[in-house]
Amino acid sequence: MPKPTPLLPESDAREAALFFVVAALCFLAVLATLTARGTYTAARAWSAQVEGEMTVRLSDTDRRGAEEAATIIRGMSGVRSADVLSQEDLERLLEPSFGPGGIPAGVPMPLLIAVETAPNSVTTALAITNALTAQGFNAVAESHADYAAEARSALGTLRVAAIGIVVLLTATAIAVIAFATHAALLARKDIVDVLHLAGAEDRFIAQLFERRFWTLGLKAGAAGSVAALAATALIIFSAQSSASQNQLLPQLSLDFWDLVILAVTPIAAGLAARLAAGGTVNHALKAVL
Questions:
Q1: What's the pLDDT tens digit per position in 87-113?
Q2: Taking 60 as the threshold, does the pLDDT of residue 9 lie above it?
Q3: Which chain positions lie within coiled-coil regions (predicted)?
Q4: How many Cβ atoms are within 10 Å of 25's Cβ, its own excluded?
């Protein structure tokens, strides 16, 4: 018995273009999803790193006075360490702003004390400021947790934007598949009419398109996932070989959950293609044909 000719032949040139579009959308969606996870990882790691850290700025005092202020801070409850930063430490911290040449001569710089408190410590930046002010120091203490909260908020906005991009790309892929399905159905209206005359129900015809686009979605999703895997691996390799890394940028890692996303994408693409094709055919057969 000869093999029946499908409504959408595998050699159809239009399918190659549709395959490319769906694969590209899957590629972008996977990258956006991995970026969303990376922003969460970056925010969590950076927040954990700066939690409990403070910086005390001292003005109108010398190095000896700064050491005395550090001794006072170390004597407060819940303080693990308080160290006066050297000139080399200051230049290293300010190098991103002033460049490798260091701090320009003549620029007044306050003395800084790096403070680390124990977890759940009740000592606040305000308490340190008040304690030093009471001893006659012109000091201001600032908690790094305040900056961490701002960074988490900014990265949270980026994460929401990435999720929005994933939703938009998914909707675009469904719309493209629906359009392609409708065009293929209209192009084969004569075959559909013959099937109807032979007693075929609309559901049978819809299943033909569902199976065809399910296969196309699986293949395109797999191609997009492989491309996203290669791009992510290249980004990770470039970041690891770079001399400097910005810890506030999304941290791509290809961990277990990243690999799960890559593995699930072809299945999700196939299901989306199948549902889009089936819904489009059922609606078209009832409303148009």
A1: 777 777 766 666 666 666 666 677 888
A2: no
A3: none
A4: 23
